[in-house]
Amino acid sequence: MSFFTSLSGLKAAQTDLNVISNNVANTNSTGFKKSRAQFGDLFAASPTQTTKTVAGQGVRLSGITQQFTQGTLQATDKTLDLAIAGDGFFAVRGQPPRQDLSFTRNGAFSVNSAREVTDTIGSKVQLLPVDASGVATSTSVADMFDFILPDEDPGDPGSLLTNISINGEGVVAATFSNGNQINLGAVAMASFSAIEGLRPIGDAHWQATGDSGPAQVNQAANGPLGQVRSGTLELANVDITEELVSLIAAQRNFQANAQAIETANTLSQTVINLQV
What we know:
- The longest helix is centred in the last third of the chain and has 36 residues, at 240-275.
- The strands form five sheets. Strands 5, 6, 9, 10, 11, 12, 13, 14, 15, 16, 17 and 18 form a twelve-stranded antiparallel beta sheet that branches. A two-stranded antiparallel ribbon has the order 1-2. A two-stranded antiparallel ribbon has the order 3-20.
- The chain has two helices and 20 strands.
- The chain folds into two domains: 2-69 and 238-275, no CATH class; 73-234, no CATH class.
- The protein has 276 residues and is α+β, with helices and mostly antiparallel strands.
């Protein structure tokens, strides 16, 4: 029995090492959120047994949960580099034909050849319609639209785009060579009832699940969404010192379980030799 108990401990320590190693590997990944392995003990006894004489049977993995704490904000010189000072997510939509809706904290956005503002995996940033004052006129997912930079002023085709600005509420304002300024929309932000239920899909992107609940969309500075910081990126929320300490502890745990297996093997071999 001690073999299997220690074996479960070895598997648990290996999982812990894998999780910590992934955190360390993504220290420089923009918008990355660290994970933590959670474990529970295994115990079994029949109704007629007294539990005072039954030992535990090892450990099991309860789950690997992501820690959505705020990462450090780093200033850049690019207007389309966006960070969130709060708990919200940017809503982005994949390219055709699937056009899957996903959510990210990685605001390293750029402009493609079609003048669409996209993220690092090519998904298109979503905007909400706003009025002249910059207040969202709809918070429905169905009313979101792609963030596309105009070439010229819609009311004066001869006036070219000269500047883009994004304020703390996520309102995107375009300025043209004739001096006109129009609001293109507000960056669509999402929050969830149970953030730990989000399904990670890689590249600091997540999808909504039944556990997380549907996305609640609004513009920035509403509820827990937080504010948008233009010219800023959010770094990974990994504390390298803390991870290295955890790595040492997981390594010691692995070694201790390996030693327990070796001890059990020595005892078994001794018993076999005595019988011979």
